[in-house]
Protein: Alcohol dehydrogenase GroES domain protein
Organism: Natronococcus jeotgali DSM 18795
Amino acid sequence: MRAAVLEAYGEELAIEDVDSPEPDPHGVVVDVEACGICRSDWHAWRGHGEWADDRVPIGQILGHEPAGTVARVGDRVSRFEPGDRVAIPFNLGEGSCPQCRNGHGNVCEDGYALGFEETVPGAFAEQVGVPHADFNAVALPDAVSTVEAAALGCRYVTAFHALAHRADLEAGDWVAVHGCGGLGLAAVQIASALGATVAAVDVREAPLELATELGADATVEAGDGVDVPAELEAVTDGGAHVSVDALGRAETCRNSVDCLRTRGTHVQVGLTTDAERGEIPLPMDEVTRWDVTIVGSRGMPPSRYDELLRMIDSGRLEPGALVTREVALEDVSERLAAMSGYETRGIEVVTEF
Ligand SMILES: [Zn+2]
Ligand SMILES: [Zn+2]
């Protein structure tokens, strides 16, 4: 089968003919019909993560936001059969550790990150293997297309889990979203659908226009000389109840914490770059003084997909609205390169393999 393989950090991915995956006894193999291209792929492609001993190995097939149709199933799989349409979370659990058993498969103690580890080759390929499929794979309702399901990717579900479960967002809250890439735009649409009033922040005009279309009530164009927390405090009449750093730079994280009102919650969903290497100074005395909560959020447990799929089914959420471009496998390298200059907009999806 054809696959896009990481041969050298920052160099064009090689389109190679590789062996098709065989399912583990507990796994399935999926014909990939759509796979989102994500900033996490960009981080992997650039070789980031060595500071956390988390660098993606050379030879890896990237791609972790797939949706498609089950082609083959292992002997011990009971929930799926060939022909079933599925979405695959990137944060795969093994299904039996205390976290998995308590519904937190996204932080499985012995889990896998699809497309980032040798044991789980990714989905920039014609087929992808999914371990522990009964636990991990998510059956798609007819109303959700494969492209929409790929748009759920890691970004949309990450934003949903961050807002609905981790920040415990309430209707009427002000939500600030820092960084309007795919993850930030998903947060805008979801926060709005959950009943919040949303302020979107970015340095670029085009994503802010898209944020407005997706439900942002206010926008702040950041940039030289702009005091983002002060602007947001004015817009939100006292600060955000919940603020999301959807980019992962020192400045966006700091602005997110600084723009909160008393007892506000900051959610970190963006991963840092090689400038921060995971370390960002924050005003912790202020966090203490004002009962501020800081939480992290990664992906979403497979057990919580139902809530999100019901909201899509009923038309309250439209992940497809974030899809701005469909491309072929050969185009992935060029689209990753475009992310270096923040030139992409919304979510781009591979649909030709
Ligand atoms: Zn587990
Ligand atoms: Zn992703």
Q: What stands out?
A: The pocket of zinc ion (ligand 1) is lined by residues 93-94, 97, 99-100, 108-111 (CB under 6 Å).
